[in-house]
Amino acid sequence: MQEEHGIEDSVEQFMRDAEAEVAMQRERYGIVWDAGLTRRFVEGSGDTYRFLRSNGVAFNRFIERPKQHTAHRMVDLDDTFSLQKAFLSAFEERGIEVRYGHRGRRLIVDAGRVTGMEVETPAGPSHIAARAAVVLATGGYQAGPELRRRYQPEHLAATPYLGVPTCRGEGHLMGQAVGGDLINMTMVQPLVIVGSALVEDSIAVNVEGCRFHDEAGPYDDRVAALLEQPDRSAFYVFDDITATNKRHLVDQMPRAAVSAPTLAELASLIGAPADALEATVREWNALVDSGATPDPAFGRVVMPVDRRGTTWDPSGRRPWCWE
Ligand SMILES: Cc1cc2nc3c(=O)[nH]c(=O)nc-3n(C[C@H](O)[C@H](O)[C@H](O)COP(=O)(O)OP(=O)(O)OC[C@H]3O[C@@H](n4cnc5c(N)ncnc54)[C@H](O)[C@@H]3O)c2cc1C
């Protein structure tokens, strides 16, 4: 995709960016970095892209990350369900069977080798013998508060997470039980869930009704800016069009969004001065309309796709927000 857009990049350039990111994250977390694995990832990413494209996955556009990427690399996926379809058709071609509802519980070890797995199935406990190897690919452990408590401060270990409820870290534990090493477990990056899900379409305001950061900036900066607000609290304002178009994301949020007929009434719901909130949204809309990038206040470069601001009165559309 970079080639199609005339973007110059290289494995070495990626590796330099990765090294800089690792150096920065080392200030916060204990990091074990496997540079060889990162290199394999980046060397294979073109093939992965071509595989996905040829199996029907579409990408929309680049999402800029100027503070982390020296070339445009991150792309917006058109439809997340297309990934499942792509893999299922590739599995079918290769005769790979997918068994749903089978929950891995324990690795079976025989004479020092992993030879299979005990699983829970809808029909009861069972086991699967491995023909050659067992690969654990059970995702993260964000939905496992007990495991998170081992690596995160108590007040963070049970906070809402992004992703599926089945990623509880069971693969981590199964691997550890047979002598596997767990690395980078403390690197549980905090994130502002609202900002991530509707990153292009919302603005963050504090209790004064004013924007206070680059909503689409690096994850850590977003969290740091939020934590500096009174009561570590802020509101992410978006409009009715977004609420309708991104209903699936809006509904996934741990806390329900609130809406009101007008911005002034929304301001009163969240305890912010109405004139300040109206002025903030007006200013944002003017910036979006002007086509200017970056945002002069906070350097935001990720703008609404169609350069549509946050619409509310007089079009009669309701403004929404999340705390
Ligand atoms: C809302 C959201 C948006 C994202 N957007 C992006 C993006 O734009 N770009 C990007 O690069 N990444 C994005 N990510 C991150 C990306 O989805 C993950 O990095 C990626 O899915 C990880 O892949 P994985 O195969 O390691 O794990 P997963 O995709 O999490 O798959 C792990 C699977 O293992 C299953 N499992 C867990 N435990 C067991 C068990 N005991 N037995 C059997 N099965 C088990 C789980 O049910 C799950 O299906 C996003 C994530 C979320 C949640």
Outline the structure in words.
The chain is of the alpha+beta class. It has 3 domains: 83 residues, no CATH class; 75 residues, no CATH class; 130 residues, Flavocytochrome C3, Chain A, domain 1, CATH 3.90.700. Helix content is 37%, strand content 14%. It has 12 helices and 9 strands. The strands form 3 sheets. It has a 4-stranded antiparallel beta sheet. Strands 3-4-5 form a 3-stranded antiparallel beta sheet, with helices on one face. Strands 1-2 form a two-stranded antiparallel ribbon. Strand 3 and strand 4 form a beta hairpin. It is globular. 18% of the residues are buried. The model has no long low-confidence stretch (mean pLDDT 91).
Features:
323 residues, alpha+beta, Flavocytochrome C3, Chain A, domain 1, 3 domains, 12 helices, binds flavin-adenine dinucleotide
What is the string of SSEs from the N terminus onward?
Answer: HHEEHEEEHHHHEHEHHEHHE
Which kinds of small molecule does this entry bind, naming each only once? Answer: flavin-adenine dinucleotide
Tell me the number of structural domains: 3
Low-confidence stretches are: none
Shape: globular
- The CATH topology annotation of the largest domain reads as Flavocytochrome C3, Chain A, domain 1
Mean pLDDT: 91
Main sheet specs: 4 strands, antiparallel
Q: Strand percentage, roughly?
A: 5-15%
CATH superfamily of the largest domain: Succinate dehydrogenase/fumarate reductase flavoprotein, catalytic domain
Q: Rg from C-alpha positions?
A: 23 Å
Indicate the CATH class of the largest domain.
Alpha Beta
CATH architecture level-2 label of the largest domain: Alpha-Beta Complex
Tally of contiguous helical segments: 12
